[in-house]
């Protein structure tokens, strides 16, 4: 089955583009990115700060079921144009990864459908490739942990 | 190996292959050392024929390579194939797909509850 979300990541470039068409009016698609009580639901994270305005800053974290913080990220909103555009920075805390620049463009297709284009620019080609691989690596780690569980049960 | 259905759409099937948690666990296991089907199966609660089926799929996708060694067949991990086919983008794409699916359903619900936007 074809996924609705498309990733364009050309070889040898330090950027990528994520596009997705939503069965939602553009106003609701935009709202999902500005209201912290909505962002927290679809991103599955805990919002520490979400100043949805030009020069506002943001910070969120994700925790495991025991409440240990697994991941924290922050950034600044550079541009905020209602129902049209958000430009922000994104940086993972306590990691060697440099900050990335993200452009979100919101487009109305019909009254009930809209399109989001996320253009992400990284500091280097290597960093982009590393970010693309991260969910894959996490998947392998999960398999590895599961394997360790299985093996430790055998002992 | 006989040609079979799995080679028909190799790219799609490799992603299906690594989407399954048991098959990922098998890959992790074999990545550390070549093993026989019996030794692999001993690591899982799953029935032996199920493990054989997983090995067949992984072999058809060329993620594993069987090699005869005396009377035994050892399965070797093929990291080049993994790199070549995966380009590692698929899980990244799925991560965003899942987030956006959630966003869509949350906002539809939000619209219903709030009536007009």
UniProtKB/TrEMBL annotation, chain A:
All copies of domain Activator of Hsp90 ATPase homologue 1/2-like C-terminal, residue ranges: 23-151
Give the SUPFAM superfamilies listed for this entry.
Bet v1-like
InterPro entries assigned: ASHA1/2-like_C, START-like_dom_sf
Report which superkingdom the organism of origin falls in. Answer: Bacteria
Per the record, the similarity remark reads:
Belongs to the AHA1 family.
What is the protein name for this chain? ATPase
Q: Which organism is it from?
A: Dyadobacter luteus
């Amino acid at each position: 089955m074809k996924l609705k979300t498309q990733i364009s990541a050309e070889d040898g470039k330090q950027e990528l583009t994520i596009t997705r068409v939503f069965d939602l009016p553009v106003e609701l698609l935009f709202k999902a990115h500005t209201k912290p009580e909505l962002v927290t639901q679809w991103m599955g994270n805990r919002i520490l700060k979400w100043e949805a305005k030009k020069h506002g800053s943001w910070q969120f974290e994700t925790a495991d079921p025991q409440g240990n913080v697994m991941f924290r990220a922050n950034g600044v909103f550079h541009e905020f144009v209602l129902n049209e555009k958000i430009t922000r920075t994104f940086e993972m805390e306590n990691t060697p990864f440099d900050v990335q620049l993200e452009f979100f463009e919101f487009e109305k297709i019909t009254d009930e459908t809209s399109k989001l284009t996320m253009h992400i620019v990284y500091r280097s080609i290597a960093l982009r490739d590393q970010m693309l691989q991260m969910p894959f690596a996490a998947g392998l780690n999960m398999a590895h942990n599961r394997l360790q569980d299985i093996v430790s049960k055998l002992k | 190996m006989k040609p079979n259905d799995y080679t028909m759409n190799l790219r799609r099937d490799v992603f299906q292959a690594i989407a399954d948690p048991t098959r990922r666990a098998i890959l992790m296991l074999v990545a550390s050392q070549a093993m026989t089907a019996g030794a692999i199966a001993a690591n899982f609660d799953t029935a032996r024929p199920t493990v054989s089926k997983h090995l067949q799929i992984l072999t058809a996708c060329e993620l594993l390579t069987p090699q005869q060694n005396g009377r035994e067949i050892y399965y070797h991990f093929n990291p080049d194939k993994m790199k070549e086919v995966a380009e590692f983008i698929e899980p990244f794409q799925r991560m965003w797909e899942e987030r956006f699916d959630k966003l869509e359903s949350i906002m539809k619900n939000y619209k219903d509850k709030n009536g007009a936007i």
